[in-house]
Amino acid sequence: MDDLKVGIEYTVKQKVNYADTAAMYGSGLVEVFATPAMIALMENAALKAVSSYLDDEHNTVGFEINIKHLKPTPVGGTVRCTAKLSEIDGKKLVFAVTASDEEGKIGEGTHTRYIINTKKFMNKLNS
Q1: Residues involved in catalysis
Q2: Domains observed in the chain
Q3: DSSP for the chain?
C-alpha cells in the first residue's frame, strides 16, 4: 500500500449492449447506455486502478460517487471509463472519473473508495 500515489490511473472499456440500457436497468425508458451502468464502469476502473497496489488481505469498497451523465451513448457504442487517483487521505482514496464514447466525453465526476481489511470487514458485517 505504500506504493499508492496520486496520479495512478486505469481505463476500462465496454461495448454497450441492450442489457446496459436505461430501459433494461429500469432507470429510464430509452435504449441508451444507463447512468447506473456508467457508474459501475467508473467504479470498476477505480477498483482496478489500485487493486494491484494492495496485499491479499486488503481491498477497497465504494463509498461515494458524484457524477454527471452528460450525453447518451447508443447500443453498439463503446464506452471508456478512466479513474485517476487524485487524493489519498489515510484509507480514503478519491478518484477523478471520466467516461467517453466515440463522440467524446459522456460523463465526469468523483468517486471515493476506502481501503479495508477484507476479512475484518466481512466478519463485522456478518456478526
Answers
A1: 35, 43, 69
A2: 9-126 (3.10.129.10)
A3: -TT--TT-EEEEEEE--GGGBHHHHTS-SSSBB-HHHHHHHHHHHHHHHHHTTS-TTEEEEEEEEEEEE-S--BTT-EEEEEEEEEEEETTEEEEEEEEEETTEEEEEEEEEEEEEEHHHHHHHHH-
